[in-house]
Amino acid sequence: MAASGKPSKPKRSPEPPPGPESEDDAALFRAAIGPVRELPAVPAPPTATKPAPVPSMARRDEEDARSEFQRALDASFLEAGDAMRYRRDEVPPRVLRRLGQGDYAAQDELDLHHADSAQAEALLRRFLKEARDAGIGCVRVIHGKGLHGDSRVPVLKNLVDRLLRQRADVLAFHSAPAAQGGNGAVLVLLKPR
Predict the structure, then answer these.
(1) Long-range contacts made by residues 113-118, C-beta under 8 angstroms, separation at least 24?
(2) 7: Cβ–Cβ under 8 A, 6 or more apart, which residues?
(3) CA nearest 172: which of 99, 81, 69?
(4) Which helix or strand (DSSP H or E) is residue 80 part of?
(5) What is the pLDDT of residue 76?
């Protein structure tokens, strides 16, 4: 303690003025530790595989289109007495009229009686492909009138109608005239190969 009664502050030593040595501490450190041995390279850690990108917008559009298509199908079921008729835009209306009158001779036929929906669809797809490959232009598909089913809707008739409308190789179809099966059969015009 000093004579005045106040504690005296310890004296600090003055800091050295910055010199060239303190400016390059890294060089001093390297000089102090000497030569350095480099470690072998470590392989990079494996990266997790990235999941494939999901086209969510395209999937949503496709689901919307399917549901809209299904609604259209559900809304327009054919009944037992309804005639089936359809033509592509490039087919003149008179061709459809002549098809309905039986003016085109069926060169082959498929009978779908006693087939369930899955069997009928597979049989019809194969039959149409084979007919087109054979160069056949007109076929008859017998689907029945649907009078003996459990529901009021003729299942096979609606299945045939839906499938024929979807196929690019079908130009037109019309329920057969009464002598060829009436509303229980359909005549189909196929695109030439």
Answers:
(1) 113/142, 113/144, 115/156, 117/155, 117/156, 117/159
(2) 1
(3) 99
(4) none
(5) 66
Crossing angle of the two packed helices 155-166 and 117-133, in degrees rounded to 10:
40
pLDDT along the chain (193 residues), means of 10: 54 54 73 84 85 83 78 65 88 93 93 90 94 94 76 82 92 92 91 86
Which pLDDT score, from 0 to 100, does residue 132 have?
A: 93
Confidence (pLDDT) at 33: 85
Helices (H) and strands (E) in the chain, counts: 6, 5
Q: Please give the angle made by the CA atoms of 106, 110 and 112, to the nearest 5 degrees.
A: 140
Residues 88, 89, 91, 97, CA torsion sign? positive
Structure pTM?
0.59
| Cα–Cα dist 163/174, whole Å | 14
DSSP state for residue 178 in the 8-state scheme: G
Euclidean distance between CA atoms 93 and 31, whole angstroms: 99
- Say what the pLDDT of residue 17 is: 52
CATH topology of domain 81-190: Ribosomal Protein S8; Chain: A, domain 1 (3.30.1370)
* Domain ranges within the chain, ordered by starting residue: 81-190
